[in-house]
Amino acid sequence: MSRIACALMLSLSGAALASQVTLDDITVRDHLYPETFKAELQNNLNFFKDGVGVDADAKVPYDTVLIKNGKVVPQYYVNTTEIGLYLNILVEVEKAGNADALVRIAEVLDTLEKAPTWNGLYFWPYDIVKGELKPTAEGIVPAVDNGNLAFSLAGVAGAYLETTDPIKQAIVSRIDALLDGQKAGWSKLYDESRGLMHAGWTTGNDAAITYYIDRKANESRLAPLWAALITQDMGDDAVPMSAFNKMELYTQPYNFNGRQFNPILTWDGAYFQAMLPAIWLNERALMPDYRMVEDMTFIQMAYAAEHNIPMVSSSATTDDGYAAFGVPYLSESKVKFNNVIHDGKTGTPHAVALSYLVNPDTAVAALKGLKAAYPAIESEFGWYDAVDDKGQMSTKILSLDQGMFVGAFLAKDINADVQRYLDARGYANDVATMYKSYVPNNG
């Protein structure tokens, strides 16, 4: 069956079944649940049920929900990193035997295919209006969210590359078409004079965002990586691998109880900035020296223990705002430039969950300890996003943070699916080559 025929079949089947499919069972395969953390992981997966964290009409997660008097109060907007993580979760739900999840994957692709874009790249944020995605007046096109979505889509396609099922084959074809349609956008974001990627574009003034993606220990790093891969056949318009290689990376010696550590510095001292891309790529295998990530994780945990909070990352505040929280001595902005950062004593469960990527047993123990110390952290719909050293909590649950929380536990399988796609498209060697540059610029 041709790719066009497969795509048509999937589109029609998704449309036909859309009114019949309600996803209220978000379970994954048994091996993905840690033995002592099954109920807690399932509680956080439950956020992605229809009518809880997912809009049943648009088929995408809400960026934010608040829990008021035991009821979900959704905020009707979303960004594409959140959509991508939702897709990766749906793949694992489908692998566990839920056929409705495959229909939902097709429906999410329907939503993405209909959404307004700029040169194929998606906006941030989108308002959710009557089941469709509508960009805001600013017209911000972020490199970071488009890079994250690209790797999420690669993971979905990678899961189904070797199948003979025409419905799954059609998913692969539709994803390839979406990704191919973004090449011009990625090329336009590259600044040859700086040798770096712009952080994005604004259609409101039809100009590039003025700052650049210039740090490797940042959640944006997958954007130049993907741009170099997807545009490699564009000749003079290709984004060179040097856009990734040229980004800077810093560590800082730190002494703790007589032991010397050399942790990686993220810009804000936020944990997710170093860890989010590892949901899609096996960075432990790709980085020349992973000890700097292990050291950062240890220091984060020590800081959390000192203040009796979870680990620290950008998150909701306990009065339901949002802040780029960080550990001061893990922040490049603070350590190297003495900038003021958000160093309030507030932590977030998703940061602890992300540490599962580094040390699974320690992460599970820390999460269990967090729940024991603050039992109210667990709502019916997932864990609240933030708690401070006084035990005050946010009433928010954020889709991005829930996606990272759950994604950390699914990452080994997501990594494998992404790797399968990279291998099949001839990208894997270039990824490995670029990651050889993931070394400190301390000088």
Structure description:
The strands form 9 sheets. The protein has a 5-stranded antiparallel beta sheet. A hairpin with a 2-residue loop joins strand 15 (254-256) and strand 16 (259-261). The protein has helices spanning 3-17, 38-45, 80-95, 99-114, 143-160, 166-180, 183-189, 222-230, 242-245, 271-275, 283-286, 291-307, 332-337, 349-354, 360-373, 399-424, 428-435, and strands at residues 54-55, 60-61, 64-68, 71-75, 77-78, 117-118, 121-122, 124-129, 132-142, 190-191, 196-198, 200-202, 207-208, 212-213, 254-256, 259-261, 315-316, 322-323, 346-347, 378-379, 382-383, 387-388, 396-398. Helix 3 (80-95) packs antiparallel against helix 4 (99-114). It is α+β, with helices and mostly antiparallel strands. Helices cover 44% and strands 16% of the residues.
Shape: globular
Indicate the proportion of strand residues.
15-25%
- Give the fraction of residues assigned to helices: 40-55%
Q: What's the rounded overall pLDDT mean? A: 95
Number of strands: 23
Poorly predicted runs: 1-19
Largest sheet: 5 strands, antiparallel
Structural class: alpha+beta
Across the major sheet, the strand order is 5-8-9-12-13
Draw up the topology in text.
Blueprint: H1 3-17, H2 38-45, E1 54-55, E2 60-61, E3 64-68, E4 71-75, E5 77-78, H3 80-95, H4 99-114, E6 117-118, E7 121-122, E8 124-129, E9 132-142, H5 143-160, H6 166-180, H7 183-189, E10 190-191, E11 196-198, E12 200-202, E13 207-208, E14 212-213, H8 222-230, H9 242-245, E15 254-256, E16 259-261, H10 271-275, H11 283-286, H12 291-307, E17 315-316, E18 322-323, H13 332-337, E19 346-347, H14 349-354, H15 360-373, E20 378-379, E21 382-383, E22 387-388, E23 396-398, H16 399-424, H17 428-435
Helix pairs in contact: 1-4, 1-6, 3-4, 3-5, 3-16, 4-6, 5-6, 5-8, 5-16
